[in-house]
Design a protein that fits this description.
There is one protein chain. The protein is α/β, with parallel strands linked by helices and 203 residues long. The chain has one domain: Rossmann fold, CATH 3.40.50.170. The protein is built from six helices and ten strands. The strands form two sheets. Strands 3-2-1-4-5-6-7 form a seven-stranded mixed beta sheet, with helices on both faces. The chain has a three-stranded antiparallel beta sheet with strand order 8-9-10. The protein is globular and about 45 Å long. The structure holds 5-O-phosphono-beta-D-ribofuranosylamine.
């Protein structure tokens, strides 16, 4: 299976996928890493692994639609079976989202549908949540609103701040993303007309 990864920053989830592939626990190939930030560490990690790294700067385009169209034309060039958004910090164009329905996933650091958007760890602490975590979901036009594939839970501990909570979540995000990606690559998880299916059975 051919995977394209979209990432804006640190790239630790990308690295988890690269490590799983190198270690033989994920039968896939990362065929390109795409970023809206030329300085993103994710691009360095891609190059270090011998993977094509592509930066497209939104400010080089007149409109958001033109940027999205260009970005996805570059992504489509590498003919991915699956697109993984791993810390991609922009809204995706609706046209492109619809064109890749069922073939694009995102990892979001909360137990969706709770705490969509930014600053999820701060949101969880402010709400007094005792359980927090991360979700892998299909991308749809609704921000962080697509069908959830899998989640990892962590406790919120007394004395946590956003940094300690984020670190606890991140540790669980890496295996979660690898496991979810494996389910998709193996064709076990699919997006049907009525939602997520496992082995052909609607969940
Ligand atoms: C992760 O917490 C992911 O859930 C969120 O952005 C962060 C990306 O981290 N969407 P990294 O760039 O993979 O290290």
């Amino acid at each position: 299976r051919r995977i394209a990864v979209l990432a804006s920053g640190r790239g630790s989830n990308l690295q988890a996928l690269l490590d799983a592939i190198a270690g033989g626990t994920l039968d896939a190939e990362i065929v390109g890493v795409f970023s809206d930030r030329p300085g993103a560490r994710a691009l360095d990690l891609a190059r270090a692994a011998g993977v094509a790294a592509v930066a497209c700067r939104p400010r080089d385009f007149a409109t958001r639609a033109a940027y999205d169209e260009h970005l996805f034309s570059r992504i489509d060039e590498v003919q991915p079976d699956l697109i993984v958004c791993a810390g991609y910090m922009r809204l995706l164009g609706e046209l492109q989202v619809d064109a890749h329905r069922g073939r694009m996933i995102n990892i979001h650091p909360s137990l969706l549908p709770a705490f969509k958007g930014l600053h999820t760890h701060e949101q969880a602490l402010a709400a007094g949540a005792r359980v927090h975590g991360s979700s892998v979901h299909y991308v749809t036009a609704e921000l962080d609103g697509g069908p959830v594939i899998a989640q990892a839970r962590v406790p919120v501990l007394d004395g946590d701040d956003a940094a300690t909570l984020a670190a606890r979540v991140l540790q669980r995000e890496h295996p979660l993303l690898v496991a979810a990606t494996r389910l998709l690559c193996d064709g076990r998880v699919t997006l049907g007309a009525h939602g997520v299916c496992l082995d052909g059975q609607l969940l």
